[in-house]
Write a structure and sequence with these properties.
CATH topology of the largest domain in chain A: Sulfite Reductase Hemoprotein, domain 1
Helix content of chain A: 25-40%
Shape of chain A: globular
Number of domains of chain A: 4
Distance between the termini of chain A: 66 Å
Strand content of chain B: 25-35%
Protein name (chain B): DUF934 domain-containing protein
Largest sheet of chain B: 8 strands, mixed
Oligomer: heterodimer
CATH class of chain B: Alpha Beta
Number of strands of chain B: 10
Radius of gyration of chain B: 17 Å
CATH class of the largest domain in chain A: Alpha Beta
GO molecular function (chain A): 4 iron, 4 sulfur cluster binding; heme binding; metal ion binding; oxidoreductase activity
CATH superfamily of the largest domain in chain A: Sulfite Reductase Hemoprotein, domain 1
Largest sheet of chain A: 5 strands, antiparallel
CATH architecture of chain B: Alpha-Beta Barrel
Number of helices of chain B: 7
Pfam family, one (chain B): DUF934
Bound molecules: protoporphyrin IX containing FE, iron/sulfur cluster
Protein name (chain A): Nitrite/sulfite reductase
Strand content of chain A: 15-25%
Strand order of the largest sheet of chain B: 2-1-8-7-6-5-4-3
Largest interface: A-B, 45 and 41 residues
Distance between the termini of chain B: 48 Å
Radius of gyration of chain A: 23 Å
CATH topology of chain B: TIM Barrel
Number of strands of chain A: 20
Shape of chain B: globular
InterPro entries (chain B): UCP030820 (IPR008318)
Order of helices and strands of chain B: EEEEHEHEHEHEHHEEH
Number of helices of chain A: 18
Chain lengths: 573, 168
């Protein structure tokens, strides 16, 4: 009997997602019941608001500017059609008919009521979803490459590892009250699409000389007030030792992480202040002292989980579809979509489709319940009922037959979901900023919209090529502006919104924190400034050079010069 | 102060020795970490000794004393400060077999975490005990029937239960 035994298959469920067994189901149900009690005890007075806060956060519930906000986990970014429909139903029943996909592969509802949240969690649990540890000072929802299992450059699918970690980190007795939140990301490919270098722990699946598969472990990356690129603490940890090694890191962090100042409480500060060598020494000492046998790594259990992510029943197809070629030529808008939003798949005749949630002038990452349903239907019609959420706030359909791309495109186009801008300048990552966030110092959504409108011409965007713009409404950096090729940080200066521009950020293995260029500008000026930077890049770039490559070659000073000259023209930059 | 053991409010048989108070000849007393060495050196046979350890205590420094202690009380200065959970693990790892007590502003919602990390008892101030009565602590015992982690003592591990189910 395998995970794909049709007799076991849930209605509507794809074959490549983890399926809860009785224990997982009971665990999630228990957490919902516990939270329902906590809400009741809060309302009745057993728990004060201060006491209640960590527990509501551990269940994804924030108190925001206008209302509560509920953050739902989409573990390692994988969703089934049935789950997507449930998200749509919840958006209609308990929110305002939409949801916001975030940079951490979560979905946020901005308007739920406190008293409804236990019911929402129950509705999620029915489809094997939850909001456990999407917030709070605990190990957060583990994220992974959104092209897992289908990327041609993959060494190993990171999802079984991520699911292993999801279980291990859930309601961990020792690590649920850490100095600060803790984020882990996993990648299993040659190219990093999970931004592992800017996580508290980043894991890269690698094979050692003996041919054994294990993990490179990076610690101390992170954005926010003090951005850092993570450092390798171990080049290779075997699979059998992974959980023990992570426990050792977490134990050292829990004991020695700073708790005196919440801005200094992340592991990145520990690594920065003590140095990676001292942290490594402490972790290795703990690792050596602990009883690893209790983890008693069970290959059969890893295999059990991995079996859920086995390839779906692909058909045998030719590598290049003639039909696709003809349709791309006949319908240029479709051709553009294929060129920009369609990525290669490891199986011949298939493709990976990125559905952009960044329509020109739209709110990055927002999807209406109707769009969610269209996507759910499309995933069933065109790809084994499976969807992914990317940290770029887009939706991925991971297994589409090349022959069917045209039909898919027509479906998406009718729902306003066919914007051909994946990875281009209008595919902007943006946090909610002042429109929703209690911590914001400036708006970010309207800035994203203005830039997107300025570059509305998709053929011009294609001439510019891949270029990530990322916007945060405050120093906390939820929009990842530090690692945007062009980053925009909204600040408040003398009662006015001011935007600081950074250049040269990179979230991949070659990670870099962007450098600030010039003084802040007003919201109105941002599109002009971006345009000037882009024009300078176009004028300077050598053949096929990406923005980052040009930036690294040409250097900070000359980019800055452009902006300075801009200022002399009276633009007050 | 209220003491919780096994989901019940129980009498506390231990007495915290004031700093200026001399060592008694009998009874169950808890001394500060600063006084531990002295207390061990002058301990009468009839005395059971416990120590009150801040959550920053180096378990290595306690190791030699552990076999002669019947109680170690780990302080939680705030319920959100989870250092005591790791310290408890390390004290148990060092072989401590006596009563391990979490003392401070812990909430019923953390009871399972405390037991999981090796604590036996939890001591809370009266204001928390008033709001979170015995029934809430008893309910908390049942709220985490199983956990995903192994090696954490209280509840059974899902991983073990799974193995057992698969072996059938
Ligand atoms: C709307 C309510 C939100 C609040 C109150 C909030 C709060 C915060 C805070 C306080 C930080 C700083 C953490 C630190 O000190 O390192 C942070 C960082 C971050 N948040 Fe949010 N956030 C919100 C929304 C979001 C959204 C919508 C996303 C995703 C789009 C997000 C993803 C992140 C990420 C990726 C970071 C960077 C963390 C790092 O790597 O250091 N947050 N957030
Ligand atoms: S970056 Fe700041 S404004 Fe934006 S969501 Fe995060 S905390 Fe809020």
């Amino acid at each position: 009997m395998t995970a794909h035994d049709p007799a076991l298959a849930r209605p509507n469920a794809p074959t490549t997602t983890y399926r809860y067994d009785e224990f997982d189901a009971a665990f999630v149900k228990e957490r919902v019941a516990e939270f329902r009690e906590q809400v009741r005890r809060r309302l009745e007075g057993s728990l004060t608001e201060d006491e209640f806060r960590p527990f509501r956060l551990m269940n994804g519930l924030y108190l925001q500017l206008h209302a509560y906000m509920l953050r739902v986990a989409i573990p390692y970014g994988v969703l089934t059609a049935r789950q997507m429909r449930r998200l749509a139903d919840i958006a209609d029943k308990y929110d305002r008919g939409y949801g916001h996909f975030t940079t951490r592969q979560n979905l946020q509802y901005n308007w739920p009521k406190l008293v409804d949240t236990p019911d929402i969690l129950e509705a999620l649990a029915e489809v094997e979803m939850h909001a456990i540890q999407t917030s709070g000072n605990c190990i957060r929802n583990v994220t992974a490459d959104h092209f897992s299992g289908v990327a041609p450059d993959e060494i190993e699918d990171p999802r079984p590892t991520a699911e292993f970690l999801r279980q291990w980190s859930s309601a961990h007795p020792e690590f649920s009250f850490l100095p600060r939140k803790f984020k882990i990301a996993v990648t299993g490919a040659a190219h990093d699409r999970a931004a592992i270098m800017v996580h508290d722990i980043g894991l890269a699946i690698e094979t050692n000389e003996a041919g054994e598969t294990g993990y490179k472990v990076v610690v101390g990356g992170g954005l926010g007030r003090s951005p850092f690129v993570g450092k390798a603490i171990r080049d290779f940890v075997s699979r059998a030792d992974l959980l023990a090694y992570l426990e050792a890191i977490l134990r050292v962090y829990n004991r020695f992480g700073r708790r005196d100042n919440k801005y200094k409480a992340r592991i990145k500060i520990l690594v920065h202040e003590k140095g990676i060598d001292e942290v490594r020494q402490a972790v290795e000492a703990e690792f050596a002292a602990m009883d690893r046998s209790v983890f008693s790594y069970d290959p059969a259990e890893f295999e059990r989980i991995a079996a859920f992510f086995a390839p779906p029943p692909y058909e045998t197809l030719t590598a290049e579809s003639e039909k696709l070629r003809a349709e791309s030529v006949a319908h240029p808008a479709f051709g553009n979509f294929v060129d920009v939003n369609v990525s290669p798949h490891k199986v011949p005749g298939y493709a990976v489709v990125t559905v952009s949630l960044k329509p020109i002038g739209g709110i990055p990452g927002d999807a209406t319940s109707q769009q969610m349903r269209v996507l759910a239907d499309a995933s069933e019609r065109f790809g084994f009922g499976e969807l992914r959420i990317s940290h770029e706030q887009n939706v991925i359909l991971p297994h589409v037959k090349q022959d069917e791309l045209f039909d898919l495109w027509k479906t998406l186009d009718a729902a306003g979901l066919a914007t051909a801008n994946a990875g281009l300048v209008s595919d902007i990552i943006s946090c909610p900023g002042l429109d929703y966030c209690a911590l914001a110092t400036a708006r970010s959504i309207p800035v994203a919209q203005a830039i997107s409108r300025r570059f509305s011409d998709l053929s011009r965007q294609r001439r510019i090529g891949k270029l990530g713009i990322k916007i945060s409404g405050c120093i906390n950096a939820c929009g990842h502006h530090h690692v945007g090729a062009i980053g925009i940080l909204g600040l408040e200066k003398k009662g006015q919104e001011s935007y600081q521009i950074t250049l040269g950020g990179d979230p991949t293995f070659s990670a870099a924190i962007g450098e600030i260029v010039g003084p802040g500008v007003t919201a109105d000026q941002v599109p002009d400034v971006i345009e000037h930077i882009v024009d300078f890049y176009l004028a300077e770039r050598q053949e096929n050079e990406t923005f980052i490559q040009t930036w690294r070659r040409v250097g900070h000073a000359r980019f800055k010069d452009v902006l300075r000259r801009e200022g002399e023209d009276g633009a007050d930059i | 102060m209220a003491l919780i053991s096994d989901g019940r409010f129980v009498e506390d048989g231990w007495r915290r020795l004031a700093e200026e108070e001399g060592l008694p000849k009998s009874g169950k007393i808890v001394v500060s970490l600063a006084r531990l060495e002295h207390a061990l050196a002058h301990l009468s046979d009839g005395v059971s000794l416990g120590v009150n350890a801040p959550n920053t205590t180096d378990p290595g420094a306690l190791a030699a004393a552990l076999p002669r202690l019947q109680l170690v009380e780990v302080v939680f200065p705030a319920f959100a400060d989870g250092r005591g959970f790791s310290l408890a693990r390390l004290i148990r790892r060092a072989g401590f077999k006596g009563e391990l007590r979490a003392s401070g502003r812990l909430l019923a919602d953390q009871y399972a975490h405390a037991l999981g990390c090796g604590f036996d008892t939890v001591e809370i101030p009266d204001d928390i005990a008033e709001r979170q009565d015995e029934s809430q602590w008893r309910a908390a015992l049942a709220a985490h029937a199983r956990t995903y982690q192994r090696g954490y003592v209280a509840a059974g591990s899902i991983l073990d239960a799974r193995r057992k189910a698969a072996a059938k």
